[in-house]
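Could you help me review a protein record that somebody else here produced? Do not assume that whoever made the record got everything right. The record follows directly below this note.
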Amino acid sequence: MFGKKWKLFRLSGFEVSIDLSWVILAVLITWSLSVGYFPLQFKDLSSQSYWIMGVTGALGLFASIILHEFAHSVVARRMGLPMRGITLFIFGGIAQMGDEPPNAKTEFWMAIAGPLASIALAISFYGVYAAGMAGGWPIAFNGVIGYLAFINIALAIFNLIPAYPLDGGRILRAILWHYKKNLRWATRVSASIGAGFGVFLILLGVIRVLYGNFIGGMWFFLIGMFLQGAARASYQQLVARKALEGEPLERFMTHDPVTLSPALPLDRLVDDYFYKYHFKMYPVVDPEGRLIGCIRLQDVRTIEKEKWASTSVKSLMRPCSQENTIEPQADAVQALARMNQNDVSRLMVVDKGQLTGIIALKDMLKFLSNKIELENP
């Protein structure tokens, strides 16, 4: 879903990142507030005041979306669901899960937490706005607070639309899942509604463009495209998970993976491994086959090329992290979840310190394609 991301900060243990596309949205929101919304609502202020209000309003929206997604993440964590963090992108924000909710109850409370947080923010901002109006506070301050009250209630209402993957669609899926005891059926129904709502927004966007509202129409069109694609992708991901559920790692594991000797010089590593096999990371093992470290392409880049021949892999390798290893007792779904959670495409299978094989995402996808084609005509 995302392209280039920048890590901003950590909030109660959750990593908050920003996607490059959010910069585009932030600029558009600031501009539209500064030259459109605030001048229309509040007359006879200076141009500087409008721009300060626009920047402040955009930052307030930025914080509101983070708190909306933070509410999802906190509830999910309390119910035992691993969360990767929060990412802001052009269509708002998303709390990234490392796995599907284990039951309908978890899905329901996690989904409803975001809209409830937005409603709480809207009430809080409106309380401050009412106090400011009664107390005669500056118009510019009251204007921004009033906007944040409005935008948070709008955010809550939009997200409560029962169109998956919006929060309302997840709430609907949780209810259907609880009623029918069938996650796949519940996902198919809610995702179909989500895709249909996406088509509605696309058509609405086209109509607005034809009637002269190009910018507003394009936003409806793009949001509709995003929702339609995300709804379909969500159902396909669930089908994939169900197809892999219970499959042992043995089906996908390469038993004779490419490994490195700790004494190998870097010049041979580059020529005989990076340029030949094209992997970004290699395991380093001792003569008994024990995994003693890992070396990555970016590690080699830190050494000047003239020193490659005199530098060994051992001097540059690092301990292998849990992010790119997995136990042989795990199944394919657990492997896929770990790959997804840590943004890696290969996992080393390690049994009591011994490297027994490697799982590659491409091999799992080939198996998945054949199984779905054979068992789901």
